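Got a spare moment? Tell me how you read both lines of this record:
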Amino acid sequence: MCRGNLSMWLQNSIRQTRLALAALLFLIIAAGGCGYQFSGGLPSALGDTEKTLKVKSIDQPTTYPWMTYVVRNALRDEVNARNLARWADSGSADNEIVIKVHSYTMRAQVRDKDDKTLIFSGSMTISATVYDGTGNNIVWRSSNISYSDIYVAPEEKAAAEELSRELMRRLCQEMRMKF
């Protein structure tokens, strides 16, 4: 009797799984017919995905020499992950971006008995301006983008890297929307 119930339960589970997969496939096909599509290959504020992008400058008010690299690396990773443009480290590029860090704070919230920080609270506000690579004409400008969160990190730089990654996600999302 137990074996019969298990067999019937398995058959019902398989049937329900098949129905769920069929419904999911139908939704994907239907959404594609309504004009929805994955954004990875769509143009952005930078133009088509074959355009190149490089950092013109990162203006940041901190005394941390690593902050420029943290922001730049987070931007590069997000641009590449979203396929917004081809990244250029140097030389000429179709577009050049200037990132302005308006504010940055990182505070120790919890310390251990050796006075080592265990939890940080951080916030940052940035904006970006994209210029065309042939002149100094503005192609696109972001709004001010702010983010704050709590970070469990071994040091301030690691917390700043997490904060920068989230800000670059938001910045690149704004680039994709183009308005």
Summary: The longest strand covers residues 95-111. Confidence is low (pLDDT under 50) at residues 36-40. Residues 58 and 81 are 21 Å apart (CA to CA).
